Amino acid sequence: MLKFILLLLLTTATLSAQGIQFFEGSWAEALEQAAAEDKLIFVDAYAEWCGPCKMMSARVFPDQEVGEYFNANFISVKYDMEKSESEEFRQWHSASAYPTLLFINAENEVVHRLIGARQTKQLLRDAASALARTEKDLDELRADYEADNTAETAYAYVRALLRAEEAHLRVANDYLRRPEVDFTAPATLRLLLLSATEADSRLFDLLLEHREAVAALEGGEAVDAQLQRAVRNTFDKGLEYRSEDLLATAVEKLALINREEAKRLESEGEFALALRGNDYKDFVKASKSYLKHGAAGDAGRLRGAFTEIKGSSFKEYKEATDLAAEALSAAAELSPEEGWRDYYQLARYLQERMRNEQALEAAERSLAGLTNGPANYRRAVQALVDELRAATK
């Protein structure tokens, strides 16, 4: 049972640092921002003592998928409903239980209210439901756009296409190619930020060209996040089609933003293609390069490399096991507080491959890292250490 609990912790621990970016202005400013961007406001109404509220703040709001969805579709704020920070908000809205999660329009009207904590997938479904209550259907939005041909109607239509996971590039490109388009207008800049979703596109180049103006309007973090998402989308497309040209484009475009990260991405691309190939020597070479250059110093990337290598078609080779172990050991060394988890997982991995002496060393390091850890975790790790000591006698 202890083994199961510990393995569950290892597989469910989140590594994502990207999440919801909460607006820090006043309630009046949040309403103004929502009106300017034609978005709903998401409100986390919480109390400091509330356990479920703390769970959402620690596990749900930092989730990358949640962050990407909410940052694109909502102005997000959070208020402690028992402190002065929420005084202005409480003039209009209340909460009878915590957390209360509200979706409010720019007219200060509640569109959707949720009581109680939500896990990641449930919160995403609830958010989509809130949007559906206010969104016109695609046919109406297309008719609006064709009738008015303004940046505002183009933005609304493109946003709806993206939410519906429909093709949006043609609409955005057609509008932004018009000679009369004003690239100083806020609606045009927001349309450009919204629609530049792939690095191998004219829209991406336009966003780079007008980067400062968009950043002044929407913030530098929002622009950088969209540019990086676009690069990743092109990179992932390149992997899907095994296209070296698309991968090279992704690297080249990222280099215009961050040269160091572009080098990492190039190494990641070589590693990913080698994983999908059949050449063992190429796999070893690319893996070594990625661990040295692409993933070095980044615990999340190193853990990802471990997972990829141990699940690859080369997993039964001795050198593949060495590379996987190297990756997870390096991740553990970079994580003083959580590295024991990596060492425990590494010990189990090595034990499965009958490398009991190496597994014992990893298990002992895991135990050493749990000096002040919970008793049940320590018992689980100690049991593994005892098992491996017996196996190595």
TrEMBL record:
InterPro entries: Thioredoxin-like_sf, Thioredoxin_domain. Keywords: Coiled coil, Oxidoreductase, Signal. Residues 124-151 form a coiled coil. CDD domains: TRX_family. Residues 6-132 form the Thioredoxin domain. Gene3D superfamilies: Glutaredoxin. Its EC number is 1.8.1.8. Residues 1-17 form the signal peptide. The keyword Coiled coil applies. One of its GO terms (molecular function) is protein-disulfide reductase [NAD(P)H] activity. It holds the Pfam family Thioredoxin_7. This is Thiol:disulfide interchange protein DsbD. The gene is dsbD_1.
